[in-house]
Structure formats: structure tokens, C-alpha cells
Specification:
about 5% strand; mainly alpha; two-stranded antiparallel ribbon
Length: about 60
């Protein structure tokens, strides 16, 4: 599993659909709050988005 130690899951494909980024899989709240999330919060986001098939690198 990729952890928050590796940084943001952003793949610079920032397109929101139903408040979820189609590139990285984070919700709008997660994108906005990422800089202040602690390690546990970031790890939880990483686990969820990987389980959901993100991040997606397709254009």
C-alpha cells in the first residue's frame, strides 16, 4: 500500500464529479484539507482511494 509518506495522491487531473476528483479520488473536502491532515488521516484517504481504483493516471 502506498502511504501518505509518499505525499499527495494528486495526479494533476483535477476534474470534480459529484464532489470527487476523477484523477486522485479524493473528495473536495479532502483536497482542501490535505495540507493540515495528520499522518493517520492521510493514510486513511490513501487506503480508501486505492481500494476504489485511484489514483488514475489516464488523461
Amino acid at each position: 500500500m502506498r502511504s501518505a509518506v509518499h505525499g499527495s495522491p494528486c495526479v494533476r487531473v483535477c476534474v470534480l464529479q459529484d464532489d470527487v476528483c476523477r484523477g486522485c479520488g479524493r473528495t473536495l473536502d479532502e483536497v482542501v484539507g490535505w495540507a493540515v491532515f495528520d499522518e493517520a488521516e492521510k493514510r486513511a484517504v490513501w487506503e480508501r482511494i486505492i481500494d476504489e481504483g485511484y489514483p488514475r493516471y489516464d488523461p
